[in-house]
Amino acid sequence: MADSRETLTINAFVVGYPIKHSRSPIIHSYWLKKFGIAGSYKAVEVSPDDFANFIATLKQGKPGTAVGGNVTIPHKQAAYQLADRPDALAEELGAANTVWMEEGELHATNTDGYGFVSNLDERHPGWDRAERAVVLGAGGASRAVIQSLRDRGIAEIHVLNRTVERARELADRFGPRVFSHPQVALYEVMQGAGLFVNTTSLGMDGTEAPHLDFSLLAAQAVVTDIVYVPLKTPILKMAEEQGMATVDGLGMLLHQAKPGFERWFGKTPEVDEALRSLIIEDMEKH
């Protein structure tokens, strides 16, 4: 007699507001098909007012309910607060992007930092030999980047922001290897840095970005942007034209999805060129 678990459909989701432009269903559907898993992964739009009810329903664990899912803007902080067992990463960030039910409790983590460093590992191995990193921007997106750089062992992480108080908050949160500066100090801290990360919306959707002099960086430096629409942002284009190595932000999206898929569906997926091409194709349509 066949094991009944083989025919059990495992359901997962991505929840946000709005959610229609999320590419996560393409990523997870690709992996489900590749592994031949009877499962689903759907985008669910839930307003901030309804999010607590959405999580309460998930916690009830009724048959057919999802086993977990991804959480995106604007619910990441609420997901952390509503989780029964957030891990140390989510705890420090105060935000979660991956949740799952286990023994009746909602667990939560944040895989954004994992996605960020995994992308760099894949596209430019050896990037972490950099002793100094420059992070432009101190918004929500920069937190996981700073945390992951610190945890990888980067000796100095310099965070610059138009409002220096926000950068200072992050330096206080992430410890003595993180330094805050106003944006006017950019060229000063870029001197000899081995990694430059844009976490701001500069250049998103093809908007312009101010000219930056990347020649100040170390000769073997890497410039990366967590924005991936367009794939080659104005900042990456600028860096490339100045002879710098660059890594686009698409891989961060792809790699951050891996731990969740493994948690919900029990298989470890690979980020391959076919998946990358699938997402690029979708980006070109919209």
Describe this structure in words.
The protein is α/β, with parallel strands linked by helices and 286 residues long. Helices cover 39% and strands 20% of the residues. A 6-stranded mixed beta sheet has the order 2-1-3-5-6-4, sandwiched between helices. A 6-stranded parallel beta sheet has the order 9-8-7-10-11-12, with helices on both faces.
Order of helices and strands: EHEHEHEHEEHEHEHEHEEHEHHH
Shape: globular
Q: Radius of gyration over alpha carbons? A: 20 Å
Give, in spatial order, the strands making up the sheet with the most strands: 2-1-3-5-6-4
Total strands: the figure is: 12
User: What is the residue-averaged pLDDT?
Assistant: 95
Please report the number of helical segments.
Answer: 12
Oligomer status: single chain
Most strands sheet: 6 strands, mixed
Distance between the termini: 47 Å
Low-confidence regions: 1-6
Q: Which bin fits the share of residues in helices?
A: 25-40%
β content, as a range?
15-25%
Structural class: alpha/beta
